[in-house]
Amino acid sequence: MSGPFTIYPAIDMRGGKCVRLIQGDYNQETIYGDSPFSMAEVFAGEGAKWIHMVDLDGAKEGKRINDSFVLEAAQKLKANIQIGGGIRTEQDIVHYLEKGVARVILGSVAISDPDFTKKMLSKYTTKIAIGLDAKDGMVATHGWLQTSSVSAIELGKQLAEYGADTFIFTDISTDGMLSGPNVDATHQLALATGKEVIASGGISSLEDLQSLQKNGNIAGAIIGKAIYTNRFTVREALTTVRDFEVGK
User: What is the pLDDT of residues 182-201, one digit of tens each?
Assistant: First the structure.
């Protein structure tokens, strides 16, 4: 893996608000803000080069629902926006990319429709990331409501052959728990695919970021609850990562 370690502050959207779920459970929701765009503006103001947005309603319903906030952020902020949730068709992909979104994330559809995924990867290349969400190493789909019989590593290798360049790996058991990321599983996926893997889930401290960065094969980290519960700020995360780069 080459290039700097990237911080992705996360904005999960449900019902037009900025929320966090615990382990993807829609019944365990905390609302952290009334405006996803305002939150994105704050993160960009603190220096974030990328912002990770998720349409939770979209993930559950299988169609775009909170896309207006994503497009507003893409068009008004200097940060790159990546979006996941409810992206099932080429029309969805085009809808975002044509309006300034930097990268779209394919999740459940990567398992349910490999032919479509292969076609989209060949057509849109680096503008597509694959979201691999795993429970005990097996891939979970549809807003984590179902677990498949496919291992994250096997699927990752297959998709890398199809042309996937970027993976977002979430260990569901750690998500929203502030219990520390699964560095080992993230590292294994990066090694197996030879591609950029962004860690997601469980990051609770600046030390967690350092342990991911120290690994050398992990491309970045998505941070959600730790920011919202004031464990650290986006600015502090960016400074920690920069200092590590300089000190290497």
Answer: 999 999 999 999 999 999 99
